[in-house]
Specification:
mainly beta, Immunoglobulin-like, 2 domains, 17 strands, elongated, Secretion system C-terminal sorting domain-containing protein, signal, Secre_tail
Length: 219
């Protein structure tokens, strides 16, 4: 494709810290968070490995990848977020794609490689005489991982550039019940939803300009 959550205050969920009243619960939760983060870091390394973007003199961009995850996508966006090109990385884990930017106007474009775990951005400057990669604008955004354990939602992700992140919980009407923000390198959060009535809630996580959501159903 080429186109040139209002609930009473006492019902608010709690972002659980390491100081819980019941030592046994604290110990179990802490271990879970640590293990969860170790697993996540391992997945993040795999997700970001083996992606190379180069440009040549003919206004062409080459994207080469290894160990691609099934369902991964490559797409090109302009500065307004309009998607100009989109394609699945393919059935093979090792492959390459070539895109032509010759017919596009002068400006900045973002080549994005996205899979289940991360989004990798490469900024490309399209000039009248060719293409340049803006290396200091390249970044990888790791997606949040979620695990639900007895009404507690464990959220974890790495934040390499330590940008502002905000986690919000919404009710069925889209109203915010609670939120928390930080700029930690490794984000670990435990959200206790046990005080909330049964129903479906949405967890939204913003990482810089990227936003990810997850629906959680309480029985």
């Amino acid at each position: 494709m080429h186109n040139g959550f209002y609930l009473e205050v006492e019902n608010r969920p709690k972002f659980v810290s390491n100081k819980l009243k019941k030592p046994k619960t604290m110990k179990t939760l802490f271990k879970t968070l640590v293990l969860f983060t170790i697993v996540l870091l391992s997945l993040n390394v795999n997700a970001a490995d083996g992606i190379a973007v180069t440009v040549n003199d003919n206004f062409r961009v080459n994207v080469a990848y290894t160990n691609a995850i099934e369902g991964a996508q490559i797409y090109l966006e302009d500065v307004d977020g309009e998607r100009l090109f989109s394609e699945y990385a393919g059935a093979t884990s090792n492959d390459s794609k070539t895109l032509s930017l010759e017919e596009l106007p002068v400006g900045k474009y973002y080549l994005i490689y996205e899979d289940d775990y991360a989004k990798s951005y490469t900024t490309i400057s399209r000039k009248s005489d060719g293409l340049d990669i803006v290396s200091d604008e390249s970044k990888t955004i790791f997606k949040p991982s979620y695990k639900v354990n007895e009404g507690i939602v464990l959220i974890s992700f790495t934040n390499p550039k330590e940008v502002k992140t905000t986690t919000r919980i919404y009710d069925a009407n889209g109203e915010i019940i609670e939120s928390i923000s930080n700029k930690d390198l490794i984000v670990k959060q435990a959200l206790d939803l046990n005080s909330l009535p049964a129903g479906t809630y949405k967890i939204g996580v913003s990482i810089g300009n990227d936003y990810f959501t997850k629906a959680i159903t309480l029985q």
